[in-house]
Design brief:
CATH class: Mainly Alpha
Distance between the termini: 21 Å
Shape: globular
Number of helices: 5
CATH topology: Cytochrome Bc1 Complex, Chain D, domain 2
Strand content: under 5%
CATH architecture: Orthogonal Bundle
Largest sheet: none
Number of strands: 0
Structural class: mainly alpha
Helix content: over 70%
Radius of gyration: 12 Å
Number of domains: 1
Length: 83
């Protein structure tokens, strides 16, 4: 995971690939967003940001309440689907 997180473009590609696989497996947008929220929570607690983009996301995550964090997670899923 470390190499995936070292470059934001690599992270977005990795996430896009996982979202695509989840959709192909029949997961709903809501389920994917819930998983993204759980992954975001894990990363916030266990992984130090490796680049400026991740630092900004962590800062936003840290100041957000639960609803705002869920929005960030949904937006990240949405971002990688259009990229």
């Amino acid at each position: 995971m470390s190499t995936v997180l070292s470059n934001f473009a690599t992270w977005k590609h990795f996430l896009a690939d996982r979202v695509s696989h989840a959709k192909n497996a029949g997961m709903t947008e809501e389920t994917i967003s819930t998983l993204a929220y759980e992954i975001g929570s894990f990363l916030d607690e266990k992984v130090d940001p490796k680049n400026e983009e991740e630092r900004v996301l962590k800062q936003l995550w840290d100041v957000g309440d639960e609803a705002e964090r869920k929005t960030i997670a949904r937006l990240m899923v949405k971002l990688v689907q259009v990229s």
